[in-house]
Amino acid sequence: MRTAICPGSFDPVTRGHLNIIERGAQRFDRVIVLVMVNPAKIPCFSAEERADFLCRVTAHIPNVQVDVSTGLLAEYARRVGAGTIIKGLRAVTDFEFEFQQALTNKKLNPELETMFVITDPEYMYLSSSMVRQVAGFGGDVTDFLPEEICEDVVKRLAEKAEQRSGVQ
Ligand code: ADP
């Protein structure tokens, strides 16, 4: 069985991510969408919330599974028998970071290949941080988020913004 991993923060998952996951799932027997817990990044949504959103938006793709990892991607891939990492590329600006990551993962696990999928042009501008920012100002994010989670994400972002303003 050919297994690929699609790793990321998914904070939250956007239509751009979903497009990459769907295209990956057409080419592999199994795709594991992996929520990476990075201690250097403080996420807006917890790993459980991010995984829950991902489960809901990928429910229609039978060969996609969602998981959370707090460790090294190269080790996770070895453990589950995955030979490929799928990463989406939006612009040249993504490339330098992704290139460094791919070479590091290859060094840590020489069996592991990284494949880059070029974004569909309509999602080129789209990132989770942009969604959080627009929603934070009350803007309409329905075109950016998968339908299944849009209402919940907007509600949760508003609650979080309220909690933050209550703390200050
Ligand atoms: P973000 O930069 O949105 O926080 P993540 O860290 O969750 O994204 O990224 C996971 C992967 O998804 C990365 O390979 C990233 O380049 C890719 N990705 C994110 N947004 C898009 C998009 N709009 N189109 C294609 N790939 C994307």
Concise account of the structure shown:
With 168 residues, the chain is an alpha/beta fold. The protein has helices spanning 15-25, 47-57, 73-80, 92-108, 128-136, 147-167, and strands at residues 3-8, 30-36, 64-69, 84-89, 113-118.
Walk me through what this model shows.
This protein is of the alpha/beta class. It is 46% helix and 18% strand. It contains six helices and five strands; from the N terminus they run βαβαβαβαβαα. It has a five-stranded parallel sheet, with helices on both faces. Helix 1 links the parallel strand 1 and strand 2. The chain is globular, with a radius of gyration of 16 Å. The relative contact order is 0.19. Bound molecules: adenosine-5'-diphosphate. Adenosine-5'-diphosphate (ADP) binds next to helix 1, strand 4 and helix 5.
Give the key terms.
single chain, 168 residues, alpha/beta, 5-stranded parallel sheet, 6 helices, 46% helix, binds adenosine-5'-diphosphate
Cα distance, first to last residue? 52 Å
As residue ranges, the low-confidence spans are none
Heteromolecules bound: adenosine-5'-diphosphate
**Shape annotation:** globular
Assess the beta-strand content as a share of residues.
Answer: 15-25%
Count of helical stretches = 6
